[in-house]
């Protein structure tokens, strides 16, 4: 899966929970949950959606790697290719 396709998939999963989110204005190195006001329940819904779309489950011990959009994409890319 290309990085662009992965980003589109992540964007779709986030917009399914937060349709008003402006991801284009989101700096990739800044915490995305805070900026989009995503609470823990919505965060889990996004992860469930990504698991369905990509077949990648994220253990709670790895949540710290998903703090930024860049980190989320890097993590998923590693899991998909590794």
UniProtKB/TrEMBL annotation:
<feature type="domain" description="Carrier">
    <location>
        <begin position="4"/>
        <end position="80"/>
    </location>
</feature>
<dbReference type="Pfam" id="PF00550">
    <property type="entry name" value="PP-binding"/>
</dbReference>
<dbReference type="InterPro" id="IPR036736">
    <property type="entry name" value="ACP-like_sf"/>
</dbReference>
<protein>
    <recommendedName>
        <fullName>Carrier domain-containing protein</fullName>
    </recommendedName>
</protein>
<dbReference type="InterPro" id="IPR009081">
    <property type="entry name" value="PP-bd_ACP"/>
</dbReference>
């Amino acid at each position: 899966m290309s990085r662009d396709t992965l980003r589109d998939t992540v964007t779709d999963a986030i917009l399914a929970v937060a349709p008003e989110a402006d991801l284009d204005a989101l700096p990739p190195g800044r915490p995305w949950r805070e900026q989009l006001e995503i609470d823990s329940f919505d965060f889990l819904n996004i992860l469930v959606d990504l698991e369905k779309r990509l077949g990648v489950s994220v253990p709670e011990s790895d949540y710290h790697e998903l703090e930024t959009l860049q980190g989320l994409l890097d993590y998923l890319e590693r899991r998909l290719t590794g």
